[in-house]
Specification:
The chain has 352 residues and is an alpha+beta fold. The protein contains eleven helices and 16 strands. The chain has a domain at 2-26 and 136-205 and 293-351: FAD/NAD(P)-binding domain (3-Layer(bba) Sandwich), CATH 3.50.50. An eight-stranded mixed beta sheet has the order 3-4-2-11-12-13-10-14. Strands 6-7-8 form a three-stranded antiparallel beta sheet, with no helix packed on it. A three-stranded mixed beta sheet has the order 9-16-15. Pfam families: DAO.
Length: 352
C-alpha cells in the first residue's frame, strides 16, 4: 500500500491486487517498533533503509490522520534495552552515527518505567525510538488509497499466474479476470516466492512464523517500549500491551499454540512483573518474509525488466517500508534513486 501511495502521489494510475484484505498479513501482525530490535547488529544495507525510514513516520502519521481521520498512533517515547551483552558495540555504533544512546543504571530504568524489572546486566536507553499502531496504519493507508481517483483496489483477488506476450509480462491472471499493466510490482511478503515461480524465478524468501500476545492492562502501566533478551513489550494508548515474538520455521502455518503462549507470558512477566495480574486478551501469529541476512529485494527482475520486486524484509517490513518503497518508486519512474540501489537488486547472483 505504501508503494501504491507513493506512485499515486506521483500521478500514476495504479491497480492494487490483494488476495485477502489490504494490510491484514505481516504488516498487521507485527509490533510496530520503528527500528530493528538491535539495530547495531545489522549490516549497512538494512541500516541505511532504517535510518531514512525512521524520520518519515512522524510526518506520515500526521498526514494520514489529517486525510483519513484514522490515527496511526505514532509515539516517540524511546526504548529501554535491558540485559544487553554487546553494549560496547551498541555504543560504538551510536557514536559513529551520532544517534543518542546511553548506558543507564537500575535507578534510571525505574524512573522511566517503575513497573519494569530491574536489569540484571547492562541497560541502554534510546530516547528517539518511536512506534506506530500498525493495524491502524494499515487502515489509514487503505482508506487514503480508496479515496484517490487514480487508485483501484481489488481485494479478495488471488493471482493465478502472469500473462506473457512475445516474451514480455503484460499483466496477471486472477480469479476475477485479467489485469493488464505496463509495469508490475510483486510485494507479496512471505508469498512473493510462490508468485514468482510462475516466471521460473527462484526468490529466496520463506515464511517465518511469529506468535504474539496482548495483555489488557490499565492505561499507563507501561509508557514506552521495553526490550529484554530478544523479547519486547509495546504499549498502546488504550492500555493494550503487545508482547513478542517467537521465531518459527513452520511453513505457511499460522496456528497459535499453548507452548508459545506460556513462553511469551513468561517473557512478558520477566520484563513487567505486574502483567502477572493482567489478562491476556489476544494471541495471534503472522508470517514474516525471511531472506538472506534480512536484506530485501528491491528492483526489476533480470529477465523481465518491467516486473519489479519489493519483498524479503524479514522482521523489519514496517521499519524499512518508507525507504524501500521510495527506492522502488525511484526505479519505476526513472528518478535519481534515494540511495544506491545495488545492495537490494534481485540480481542473478542473489537469486541463485
Amino acid at each position: 500500500m505504501m508503494t501504491a501511495l507513493q506512485l499515486a502521489d506521483a500521478g500514476q494510475n495504479i491497480t492494487l491486487v490483494e488476495r485477502g484484505a489490504c494490510g491484514k498479513e505481516a504488516s498487521w501482525a507485527g509490533g510496530g517498533i520503528v527500528s530493528p530490535l538491535y539495530p547495531w547488529r545489522y549490516g549497512e544495507p538494512v541500516s541505511q533503509l532504517s535510518r531514512w525510514s525512521e524520520g518519515v513516520y512522524p510526518t506520515l502519521a500526521l498526514r494520514l490522520l489529517e486525510e483519513t481521520g484514522i490515527d496511526p498512533e505514532y509515539r516517540q517515547k524511546g526504548l529501554l534495552y535491558l540485559n544487553v551483552d554487546d553494549d560496547d558495540a551498541a555504543l560504538h555504533w551510536a557514536r559513529q552515527l551520532g544517534k543518542p544512546l546511553e548506558r543507564v543504571d537500575a535507578a534510571f530504568v525505574h524512573q522511566k518505567e517503575p513497573e519494569a524489572a530491574a536489569p540484571g546486566g547492562s541497560a541502554l536507553w534510546m530516547p528517539t525510538l518511536g512506534s506506530v499502531r500498525n493495524p491502524r496504519l494499515g487502515q489509514a493507508l487503505r482508506a487514503r488509497l480508496a479515496a484517490m481517483p487514480n487508485v483501484t483496489l481489488i481485494e479478495q483477488c488471488s493471482v493465478q499466474g502472469f500473462i506473457q506476450r512475445q516474451g514480455r509480462v503484460v499483466g496477471v491472471d486472477t480469479n476475477q479476470g485479467e489485469q493488464l499493466a505496463e509495469q508490475l510490482v510483486v510485494c507479496g511478503g512471505a508469498w512473493a516466492a510462490q508468485l514468482l515461480e510462475g516466471l521460473n524465478v527462484r526468490l529466496p524468501v520463506r515464511p517465518v512464523k511469529g506468535q504474539m500476545i496482548a495483555y489488557q492492562a490499565p492505561p499507563g502501566l507501561v509508557q514506552r517500549v521495553v526490550l529484554k533478551d530478544g523479547r519486547y513489550v509495546i504499549p498502546r494508548s488504550d492500555g493494550l500491551l503487545l508482547v513478542g515474538s517467537t521465531l518459527e520455521e513452520a511453513g505457511f502455518d499460522k496456528a497459535t499454540d499453548e507452548e508459545a503462549l506460556v513462553s511469551l507470558k513468561r517473557s512478558a512477566e520477566n520484563i513487567i512483573p505486574a502483567l502477572a495480574d493482567c489478562p491476556v486478551a489476544h494471541h495471534w501469529a503472522g508470517l514474516r518474509p525471511g531472506s538472506p541476512e534480512g536484506i530485501p529485494f528491491i528492483g526489476a527482475l533480470p529477465d523481465f525488466p518491467n516486473v519489479f520486486i519489493n519483498a524479503g524484509h524479514y522482521r523489519n517490513g514496517l521499519v524499512l517500508a518508507p525507504a524501500s518503497t521510495h527506492l522502488l518508486v525511484d526505479q519505476l519512474l526513472g528518478r535519481k534513486p534515494l540511495m544506491d540501489p545495488a545492495p537490494y537488486q534481485p540480481t542473478a547472483a542473489r537469486l541463485a
